[in-house]
Write a structure and sequence with these properties.
The two termini are 42 Å apart. Helix 3 runs parallel beside helix 10 and helix 9 runs antiparallel to helix 10. The chain has a domain of 280 residues: M75 peptidase, HXXE motif (A middle domain of Talin 1, Up-down Bundle). It contains 15 helices and four strands. It is mostly helical and 421 residues long. The protein has a two-stranded antiparallel sheet with strand order 1-2. Strands 3-4 form a two-stranded antiparallel sheet.
């Protein structure tokens, strides 16, 4: 593996140390344009790091396809895990930036009905009332019927995945591209429920197994698309990129919308509380690889990054500049201190989930029914996310941006009874 448990924890400690450094003092609050420039610079750096790790993943996939073995499969899995570290930190740019939202579903859509892609265990079932392609298994079937029309899938190409299969029939669970499609093709289903263990796809799926060549073609097509999509997003945040150019019109509301919506509706609600309420590993974000603890942790770090105006790159260098924190501190130093403490507290609570997972209890085990201690650790992180959202809402009010900032909600937080209906 690229990072052992102890190396992951050491990297987390470095980020925590750098994140805890005091914000540079300014004689006056920075101009909004300068804060937005820092925000865009961090986006560019985060997507550049994501692209670099996606290219490393693509190279590892090439090696797996060329010479399938336990070693090349393990290397590809490690490269996938490494790619999640920078990408998850960029999720703070969702919700507040339409260009990112319009694009995000191609790279990180979740959850997915994996039967669209490849073989599944009989326990998965054979049909779904909401998805005609629930067990379409494009890898095994060179011809498909989508929306009543026959689709030629004899050649599995990036274009087939992107243009014909992604959200086919208008079903969001038909996720054919992105990190999670690749994850499924590297690990296979996790059939352990809330017990120990992740997916155990054998390397022979790429050598001697039935449809090995088509499976390899699908994996390569998905990896090729991931690199292309990240190249597109890097370009959007360069000096003349469309996402950077759109920021002046949106102003600080873009930052606050992303921080609040990712914290509350998305991570605290959809990704964490829903799974905890149901004690359901199917609601786990990185469910095939048991990597969810890392994804949740770096989402929290990403929110902290954009508030403090500081991002620690994979090479250890730091991108930083005028920040939203300084704007808030100039108007209400106590509120800034409160928000910084809330963000740090959430990161600490996410690190407790990571430490538990690195110690042998994966996230899906932590949310399991009857695991009171594990449930409490997850709930503490949810509580931290909710608390920081309240601080973000106070910042929105302080800046008179209530008419421009809408924070995503989640039934699992605001109307949990609806989850069980």
């Amino acid at each position: 593996m690229i990072q052992s448990g102890s190396r992951v924890l050491r990297r987390l400690a470095v980020i925590l140390c750098l994140s805890a450094m005091p914000v540079a003092a300014y004689a006056a609050a920075p101009a909004e344009a300068d804060v937005l420039s820092t925000y865009a610079d961090i986006a560019l750096a985060g997507y550049e790091d994501s692209l670099a790790t996606a290219k490393a993943l693509d190279a590892a996939i090439d090696a797996l396809i060329a010479a399938p073995s336990e070693e090349t499969l393990a290397a590809a899995r490690a490269a996938w895990k490494a790619s999640r570290i920078p990408y998850q930190q960029t999720e703070a740019y969702r919700f507040g930036n339409p260009i990112v939202d319009d694009w995000e579903g191609r790279v990180n859509a979740w959850p997915l009905d994996e039967g669209l892609i490849d073989y599944v265990d009989p326990s998965y079932g054979s049909e779904s009332d909401s998805n005609p392609l629930y067990v379409a298994n494009v890898i095994a079937n060179p011809k498909l019927s989508i929306g009543g029309a026959e689709v030629d899938a004899s050649q599995i190409t990036p274009e087939l995945l992107q243009d014909r299969l992604q959200e086919a029939d208008g079903v969001e669970a038909n996720v054919a591209t992105g990190y999670h499609a690749i994850e499924f093709l590297l690990w296979g289903q996790d059939l352990n429920g809330t017990g120990p263990g992740a997916g155990v796809r054998p390397y022979t799926d790429y050598s001697t197994a039935e449809h090995a060549d088509r499976r390899a073609a699908y994996l390569k097509a998905a990896s090729t698309l991931l690199v292309r999509d990240l190249e597109e997003m890097v370009a959007n945040w360069t000096a003349d990129g469309a996402a950077r150019a759109a920021l002046p019109e949106m102003g600080l509301s873009a930052i606050l919308t992303g921080m609040g919506s990712l914290s509350f509706g998305e991570v605290a609600g959809q990704r964490m509380k829903l799974g905890l309420l149901l004690h359901d590993p199917e609601e786990e974000h990185d469910c095939f690889s048991d990597n969810t603890h890392i994804s949740h942790y770096y989402d929290a770090v990403g929110v902290q990054n954009v508030y403090l105006g500081r991002y620690v790159r994979l090479d250890g260098s730091v991108v930083e500049g005028p920040s939203l924190a300084q704007v808030i501190a100039d108007k209400d130093a106590a509120l800034d201190g409160e928000i910084q403490a809330q963000l740090a507290d959430t990161v600490d609570k996410m690190q407790a989930i990571v430490a538990r997972a690195e110690g042998g209890e994966a996230y899906d085990q932590q949310i399991g029914e009857g695991n009171d201690e594990g449930n409490a650790v997850v709930q503490a992180a949810i509580d931290g996310l909710i608390a920081q959202t309240r601080g973000i809402e106070r910042a929105v009010a302080l800046l008179n941006l209530a008419d421009k900032v809408t924070i995503e909600d989640s039934d699992s937080l605001s109307n949990p009874d609806a989850v069980f209906e």
